[in-house]
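Incident log entry.

Two folding requests arrived from the same account within the same minute. Monitoring flagged them as a possible duplicate submission, but the sequences differ. Recording both here for audit purposes.

Request one:
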Amino acid sequence: MKPLSPPSRQFRDQRRQMTLFLTNSMGGKKQLFVPHDPQEVRMYVCGPTVYNYAHIGNARPAVVFDILVRVLERHFGRVIYARNLTDVDDKINAAAAEAGVPMSAITERFTAAYHADMAALGVRPPVIEPKVTDHIPQIIDLTGRLLAAGHAYEAEGHVLYHVPSFPDYGALSRRRRSEMIAGARVEVAPFKRDPADFVLWKPSDDAQPGWDSPWGRGRPGWHIECSAMIEHHLGNPIDIHGGGMDLQFPHHENEIAQGTRARFWIHNGFVTVDGRKMSKSLGNVLLMRDLLVQAPGEAVRLALLSAHYRQPLGWTAQTLPQAVKTLSRLYAVIGDGPEDVRLTKDSPLLARFRAALDDDLSTPAALAELFTLAEAAKVVDAGLRPRYIAALVEAGAELGLLQKTERQWRAELAICCAGGADVARIEALHIERSAARARQDFASADRIRDELVALGVAVEDRSAAEQGT
């Protein structure tokens, strides 16, 4: 990794023209985003612990930071995006023991499932996807350096970080010490010097995964893993560190104590189901694999973008059907796709849409601009309509949406929402209905529309003039 260099004069001049603002959790204010290197943004996002199938709460940060990468690429070009996989954890070990299989069998299975779910959502793979088990030497090295610097100590086979050694602890979450101790749900251990101290390295018995270290056979604590992988792959400091709001404390607070530095800390809000937090005890955990049977991944993605990323996302029984209906209307405008129309980089048709995303990733405002473009495409002069459709598709690309034709969308929707109904039958009904409308047999057209709706396929009509453009 090349060393960071001071911004050039050209970049300082360019900075005055920048318009991307993001809310920095360190301080809680919206700030102009400026990377250290004008040609490259370095971003790390905490990924999943791969011991079970991904749920909608795991999917939200993946989609949010996928959008952020797209916006950053528009502004700065190159983005080195790292999102880790935690593949050593007590939950993984418990799952492996229960199934009577090696730990790797659990992690490989659920890593593959996670990748499949994210691909269905249109989430692009990160540039770097480090696994904890591939970075044990780096974790041991960082732990040793924290010991040498007086920030950590050994006790009964453990290495613990001594929180009072870092006076700025709590700056990110802005919590009082009593709140932090309670919020961390710290393990009570007689060998701790302070209740807030947390584990960097812990001993492993014969039934637990372990690696040799200067402190005996053991395994890393959770927080040290990300700090070591960030330092190894991206250097220190980085431009952006992201994750869910639940990681702000204690995980990211502990990373800062361990030495991780980021210009911006960015966190997405929780997903609630019918107004309640997801939990196994309530039986309301929504797994991605189940949602993807109900609707195409693009609809799930749209639903995840319907609320501002920093706000809670309230999921109800109507969330997914509404997203399907919205996409069907937009694809009805796109039809067979845009003609070969080239929009300039600063096309005024895209200005309001991009301004919305540049204002702290305001996806609700950006989606509103999509709808405005779609409505305008219906009423503008036929000669202008291809430009509006091209703008709609280009804007959709930045959101990871609307990259199919209407026909492709209908086929995908038929498979998901019609329980595997015959796609050829769906297509035949559309053709039959179009012919009925062309000969002004509206009674037959209405009957066929009702049949399509019964199959779970949304239908939106366009005028003959619109169909001909």
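Request two (distinct sequence, not a duplicate):
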Amino acid sequence: MQVIFDTLNVYYIPQYAPIIKQLMLRQHQVTLVCYRGKNDQHTFADLFTHLGTDCIWVEDEKEARDVYLRLKPDWIFFGNKFDHLDAIHKHSKTAQLGHGVGPKPSYYHKSSTPMTVRFIEGALRLKKIQEFYPQDHFVQVGFSKLDPMFSGTEVGLDYDKIGLCPKKKTILYAPTFNPSSLECFPDDWPKDFEEYNILIKPHSLTQVRPQYKNQRAKLEKWARHHNVYVASEKDLSLLPFMKHADLLLSEASSTLFEFAALGKPVIICNFFKLKWSYRGIFHYRFEKRFGKDNVLYQELGLHVQHYQELKTAIPQQLNAPSEYAENRKRYTQDHVGPTDGLASERIVDYLEQHG
């Protein structure tokens, strides 16, 4: 069986990786198709070597379509919508796999162009998406990205190598790129938490897009502190960071659900900087894109309204990690799904049975 993963953005890869591993264990042929316009080919060349896969680089969606029509694989995975499915479906079956389980309505709208199957994570998400698209085919499997965490195969970070103390508790700060709390944190905020390790894992787009240069300037300042490790552009996966962290800070990221599924506390930052097109009279655009009607996470963990509140909130949550434990279990069942580490196996089983 030949399977291709349409990799519009390289940050899809952590979601694809456990499935790729499972496919290769079963002797299937795996290829990635990556987009030059979205990703730097030279930066990530060694990543594909590590995965053990071939990578075909294309300029845009039309060139990707031509590749799929030429190769005629059995299955093609997409992390987003694709505008040439009628042609593709003459030769191949398609599977849609979201790269996150965040609160954005776009999670659901990606299914506006129906594929052969879409793999869904939690029970509540499955129920809701079936209401939106009753004629389409959805299969609940869990969240493949977290398989290495649940199976215990994730190695994590080498604290000696990155210069952190393994005896200290660890805070993971994983802001998204927009809307982001990143620019609302002080330049010297690690000084307020010197008794902890601080892992900072920004969104991949923060690392590469010109419009986020102010966010990168903040990261550079934070990285100078002795208790901080800031992920590089090549640190695509959040899993090694989650492995060691005792608590997560984020604002509107899928990371909140992923970390809560590990049974660890999260703090939701309700302060963030909006780009100009979401402010003032344009605030309706923000509500339309990030409205919380699709995923209500008010009870997932402690919410803070300002940076200063973190000075008491962080030690309080670290000392009482069970405070939101029951809520985390409920959210995990609804949004992340089974936590047995077998989501990727269920996906490959389906591909083999319906190939």
